[in-house]
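Case 289 in the screening queue. Each case pairs one protein sequence with one candidate compound; here the compound is magnesium ion. For every case the pipeline is the same: read the inputs, emit a complex structure as tokens, and attach any notable structural observations.

Predict complex for case 289.
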Amino acid sequence: MSELAPSLPPESIDAGTNSSDAPVRIVGLVKSFGRQKVLKGVTLSFPRGKTSVVLGPSGCGKSVMLKHLVGLLRPDKGQVIYEGERIDTLSERRLGPIRRQFGFLFQQGALFDSFDVYGNIAFPLRELEGDRPYDEEARVRRVLRLVGLESAIHKLPSELSGGQQKRIALARAVVLEPKVLLYDEPTTGLDPIRSDVINELIIKLKQELRVTSIVVTHDLVSAFKVADYMVMFHEGNVVLKGEPELFRRSTDPIVSRFLRGEASEEELRAIREVTSSNRDAARVPGVLP
Ligand SMILES: Nc1ncnc2c1ncn2[C@@H]1O[C@H](COP(=O)(O)OP(=O)(O)OP(=O)(O)O)[C@@H](O)[C@H]1O
Ligand SMILES: [Mg+2]
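Case 289 output:
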């Protein structure tokens, strides 16, 4: 932790001590893949009914962290706690009912191409309740209205734009009325207007469904629009957490460079080395086409 504003109320600085204010917590999370250490002991609390945004450069472990929250990955060390209960050690069977309290908007939209919008959204209901879920159509229509796409109910995913597909995936993520909503890069690949529709939806769903939201993104416009709290990851550690204002004021070079979108000297040097080695290769006849 590089800095914390002493004036912030305790819940905003994520002390990780008051589980009743934070339905989701991770404590000392460590995760490696082979020799690559991705998370190096991350401790975080996600406050109830608020939107926490997780920022950080590509490959720093944001999606890996998110997958731990729903047991898609298991930690090497550390704990995942949901409503005061440790869940990272639960069997798949016992994890099932807890997983249903989470809605997950995956980084890759992941709609079923062969199902229409109705079939995609009804899918989690049918998985849970068998062939004839209670009031299926009304529930599908309700979430479609929430994302403003009721008119697309009989379309196939291929007939929708990227932004519309994200909204359908979001409708599907909320159809089981989750308590926690996880968004992995919800605006990536969308133009600024479609991104803003998603931002507005994140805010609306927080208000209407009273969910605790965790949004992983490197879209800074989106981050500052939706965030009540922010966390920044860098190389598997948390470098800063707190209210958005703390980030705006931060003088930490890692944070301020990320917010300005500037590469570090080290990164620039690596690129210069690659560029000059390409130039050398170009001088050798036959190396480049
Ligand atoms: N299942 C896996 N097996 C092996 N390595 C993995 C696996 N999942 C993630 N990694 C590695 O862990 C690192 C962090 O991945 P992660 O997907 O969390 O990055 P990220 O911060 O979400 O990046 P981005 O912003 O590009 O989505 C990457 O180097 C990735 O290659
Ligand atoms: Mg990711």
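Case 289 observations:
- The CA atoms of residues 29 and 184 lie 19 Å apart.
- Strands lie at 24-33, 36-46, 51-55, 77-82, 85-86, 102-105, 180-184, 212-216, 229-234, 237-242.
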